[in-house]
Amino acid sequence: MIVYRLRNTKEGRKRDEFPSGELHYENGSVQLDVPDRALAKSIQKHFQENFRVRAVRGSLETFLGHAWIELQPGTEQHFDEGLRQLVRLNLVAE
Question: Is the pTM of this model over 0.85?
Answer without folding.
Answer: no
